[in-house]
Design a protein that fits this description.
Keywords: Membrane, Transmembrane, Transmembrane helix
Structural class: mainly alpha
Radius of gyration: 24 Å
Distance between the termini: 81 Å
Number of domains: 1
Mean pLDDT: 74
Number of helices: 2
Helix content: over 70%
Oligomer: single chain
Strand content: under 5%
Largest sheet: none
Number of strands: 0
Shape: rod-shaped
């Protein structure tokens, strides 16, 4: 009887640990393309200002 309770506790603990690892990563990956777009815009902005002045 004790082994069954211990096994059930380990199973629920591993499921809880799995969810705590996967939920933040899924929230980040949902917005991954938007984050890349903002980073690309921040990189392009100084170049768009700098090159026309030099040319």
């Amino acid at each position: 009887m004790t082994n069954a309770i211990l096994l059930d506790y380990n199973k629920s603990y591993s499921t809880n640990q799995y969810l705590h690892l996967k939920l933040p990563s899924s929230q980040f990956l949902k917005r991954f393309h938007e984050i890349l777009g903002v980073l690309g815009a921040l990189n392009l902005c100084p170049l768009a200002i700098y090159f026309p002045v030099e040319m």
